[in-house]
Design goal:
5 helices; single chain; globular; Rossmann fold; 36% helix; four-stranded parallel β-sheet; alpha/beta
Length: 122
């Protein structure tokens, strides 16, 4: 799976991204300004970039440094100061380590672990 942010039309044509944005607009309104978003398993950062462009402060989390290199290049190209990326295993995602978030995206995978994620609650 890829978020394909290197394709210019990705932000306008990706059906998964459109569905996420549509759902978030219902839940949060047309802007994500003031919201904290974490993108678990962010891959190359395409969804993270889209959330940042909607005004959110976004943290992309991925285990692969090669993915994060691409994601950081994307962030720098678009000059998104509200977008950051960190290398970490999402199975170790906790509130104590990363804080709390208004929106948690986990679109890059379907099953992570059979144990409870302490970071997913308020």
């Amino acid at each position: 799976m890829s978020t394909k942010p290197d394709l210019l039309e990705f932000l306008d044509t990706d059906r998964r991204l459109k569905a996420i944005v549509r759902l978030l607009s219902v839940l949060c309104g047309p802007s994500l300004a003031g919201k904290r978003v974490v993108d678990l398993g962010c891959l190359e950062g395409g969804f993270s970039l889209a959330m940042a462009q909607l005004g959110a402060t976004v943290l992309g989390v991925d285990a692969r440094e090669s993915n994060l290199d691409k994601a950081r290049l994307l962030r720098d190209h678009f000059e998104m100061s509200n977008l950051d990326f960190v290398q970490a295993d999402v199975k170790e995602f906790t509130r104590e380590r990363f804080g709390t978030f208004d929106v948690i995206l986990a679109s890059a995978f379907s099953i992570i672990s059979n144990r409870r994620f302490d970071g997913f609650g308020k």
